[in-house]
Amino acid sequence: MTNSTENNPTAEAQKCKEEGNAAFKEGDWNTAISCYTKAIQLSKEDSNDKAVYYKNRAAAYLKISEYSNALNDCNAALEIVRNDPKALFRRCQALENLERFEEAYRDARQVHTVDPLNKAIQPVLERLHQIVQERLRENAQTSNRVAQMFKIGFDMEADSEKRETAMNNLVVLARERAGAEVMYQEGIVRQIGKLVKFEKKHEILLPAIRIIGELCKRSMVRTKGIVQELGIPWFLDVINCNHEERVNAAQYCIQTVLNSLSGMDNKPESKPVPECVAENKNEIDVLLSCLVYSTTSRTISGLARNAIIELITRNIHYTALDWAERLVEIKGLQRLMEVASELQEYKYETTMEITESTRTIVSVCLTRIYENMYYDQARERFLNNVDDYVKSKLITPDIESKVRVVVALTTLLLGPLDVGNTILAKEGIMEMILVMANTDDILQQKVACECIIAAASKKDKVKAIISQGVHILKKLYQSKDDSIRVRALVGLCKLGSSGGTDASVRPFAEGSTKKLAEACRRFLINPAKDRDMRRWAVEGLSYLTLDADVKEKLVEDRAAIRAMMELARTGDQSAVYGVVTTLVNLVNAYEKQEVIPEMIELAKFAKHHIPQEHELDDPDFVAKRLEVLANEGVTSALVALSKTDSQNSKELISRVFNALCSQQDLRGIVVQQGGVKVLLSMALDGTDKGKKQAAQALARIGITIAPEVAFPGQRCVEVVRPLLASLHLECSGLENFEALMALCNVAGASETVRQRIVKEGGIPKIETYMYEQHEMLRRAATQAMTNMVMSPDVVKMYEGNNDRVKYITLLCSEEDVETSKAAAGALAILTSVSKKVCRKVFQPANWLDILHQLLANPDKDIQHRGVVIVSNMIHSCKDVAEKLVETDITEILMALSIIREEGKEKIREYAEEALRAAEQWKLIKKPGEEGSDDDDVE
Questions:
Q1: Contact between residue 442 and residue 481 where contact means Cβ atoms under 8 Å apart
Q2: If you ran DSSP here, which 8-state letter would residue 931 be given?
Q3: Which of 35, 460, 473, 662 has a C-alpha 20 to 30 A away from that of 447?
């Protein structure tokens, strides 16, 4: 016999709706949304039922704060049933949360008109009326303030200090909704467009550019109008200068334009909205093309070039924009290779202005593009483009062409290594580099030396270079030119460290690494050497510090450590890799291969080489090194270096932060010196390993430092996502445990944080670990849930048709005292606010035994929680109280009510309250009252 709903879409849709309603009542909003979506899909024609499905889905969307989706569903419902009160009410809620207060007020009034007896709309109507009136007053005041600032700010004859103040005030006003709208309507964009042509003072230009950025925020309409009014070339003109603040402001402005056109906001985890990208495809493509073409402009400053390449890097990985392949199509790779081939010290007729960081920034950009070549054909196109560039340069075998190719190849080897190695393996390339290194020309020696260093990354290349290039590097180290000597030194350092952390492998003679380290140190601490020399010296140390002897010697050399920190605080992008890698090595934060004893025995049997760890890499030595670095300001140095766009460098920075946070005494220093802000950013954006490291560091901070101190303000909410990401099977048990402990603490901070945990799907994740066999994980998860049940939304989940209360009740009888205490605490909270939960305590077959264990527990905290649970249950309703009174619970309560032990006063009070409640239900009689036949009711 076939099911009656089969081949009947209407009946099937109704069934989906009922399933959605059940999930909604249980607080399972995502399941509810899924069910309502199926019901909508099954309803082909518009009908009253379909309007209901839309309304219900809107209600679920409101629960998880997806207000735009809720708004769309309410609109769909109202197209079917005009003036439906529920749809209007829910649309009003969505609009209010989207801060579209005037429209929300319109809907609230409409609800009142069509359903005048609706009591729920009255407080909403009053609240929105006040907001709308306040906004009208605010708009009027804002208009006056804007007019005053306009008059002063754009008056070229006015006092410059007054103009500067006025422009800065306009920036503040532009951040407000009303101010932004008034300015835009009053034509400030046109005024700023004129101002930039004639104004010379950076103090006035800077706020003018910032105003444009603020006007573009969160408004696609305004952004499109601004781009049309000013044109993309205007943005490229304002970024073109040597004033760092102005370049940063213009870069931010261009990013904001792109964000608005693609539906993103300025948060790291934000992603483009495909519909917005499709709608604005032409504008986005024009912006990309202009940015790419300007990378090789000979008329822009080095700072502007860096900022433009950084913009390309930051947005290249958003697949919805499809920038990676598009960039290859418009020959953007060749342009980037052209920039990659530039040298600051080599000037010629068509030279481009670059900075010390430019080539590092290009290498990061090339890496990001290559990473987004998701299939073999795309990667092949990338390689062919690079190969074409190299061939085009080597057609004319002059010195300049060779130098440019080798410099570009070095940049490639610092970026997409596979591509660099493929080009390096081409016939004659390596030989050309070695010949250049062996000449007497300083420039050729320098670029060849740098390329040899970059090439010595893979073991097969290292062997070839050691056999062919060591004698050349040694010869170059004898040079009188310090810039050649330091590069040759780094090359020798890299080759000498090819054994890694294995104490038994030493490519060079015993003691060589210490001598090389001492040579690097001399370059590093010498104040007469320029920053470029110190950067190379640190890079040499980044290889040598794989040797534990070098680590110990370096960490005891405070002058060298301070010089390295000083270099790091400059934020020089070309110094990032060397400094961070050295720090990773010093604190042993590099990735370690898991050592399986059985595999070691097998290797011994097969007579294979077994890596040996140095005794100076024991945890005690690492802890001492961490303390030294923390006291020398490593956190502030890492914060400065974190501005890099290199995901690999960010991962290394996260590793160092995590190593610091592994020491409880150092976590406060990380918080004080701004580490949390950097870690939050890195936990949301970076490599998978980097995000895990940053999340673990945040968890460790959250365990020992109060949330309001560690994560003040909005950060307490932002830290939720990284912590929940650590509750994953791919993370280690320690990472899981630390994340649960931190979640427990932040969940106790505020209801806002608890709601974010619920919204991010945190409850099922925490519950998974409540079922874990590992005692510590089970305990931490239960403790986290104890704080979560303070949220009304979580209480509703426990009231739903599920076994949540049953399991938390069973956990009360755990042998582990802390788990039992946490579970009893959660149950005490739940029973204090929910009659449904009080009834559900009877679900386990052994509920009475569990209550006995709690009431008679030798731990007074557990006993206290037990008597609170029983008192809550007796107070809740008569049928629950009757079921308890039928047992020996009342006798236990009477015994507890006369207890006189010190520290158990609260237990006695709750026992007395429970007994009084039973008396009020007339389930027991007051002491001294005698029962008689006259007392019975007929």
A1: yes
A2: P
A3: 460
Q: Which pLDDT score, from 0 to 100, does residue 339 have?
A: 94
Whole-number Å distance between alpha carbons of 689 and 735: 12
Per-residue model confidence (pLDDT) at position 660: 95
Confidence category of residue 469, pLDDT binned at 50, 70, 90:
low
What would the mean pLDDT of 694-704 be, rounded to a whole number?
Answer: 96
Q: How many residues does the chain have?
A: 938
pLDDT bracket for residue 460 (50, 70, 90):
low
Rounded Cα–Cα distance for residues 206 and 196 (Å) = 10
- In order, the DSSP letters of 727-742 are SSTTS-HHHHHHHHHH
Q: pLDDT-derived band of residue 349, with 50, 70 and 90 as boundaries?
A: low
Instruction: Give the whole-angstrom CA distance, residue 660 versus residue 654.
Output: 10
Place of tokens 């450590």: 561
Q: Which residues contact 520 (CB under 8 A, 6 or more apart)?
A: 489, 490, 493, 537, 538, 540, 541, 544
User: Where along the chain do its domains lie?
Assistant: 9-118, 820-929
Architecture of domain 820-929: Alpha Horseshoe (1.25)
Secondary structure string (H, E, C) spanning 28-59? CHHHHHHHHHHHHHHCCCCCHHHHHHHHHHHH
Cβ atoms 642, 681 nearer than 8 A: yes
Cβ within 8 Å of residue 765, ≥6 positions away = 724, 727
For residue 663, the 8-state DSSP code is S
Compute the mean pLDDT over every residue in the chain, rounded to the nearest whole number.
Answer: 86
How many Å apart are CA 735 and CA 661, to the nearest integer?
13
Q: Distance between the two ends of the chain, CA-based, in angstroms?
A: 55
Q: What is the mean pLDDT of residues 909-926?
A: 88
Q: Say if CB 493 and CB 465 are below 8 A apart.
A: no
Rounded Cα–Cα distance for residues 57 and 39 (Å): 10
Per-residue pLDDT tens over the stretch 865-885: 999 999 999 999 999 999 999
Quick: pLDDT tens for 30-55.
899 999 999 999 887 888 899 999 99
372 in Cβ contact with 319 (< 8 Å): yes
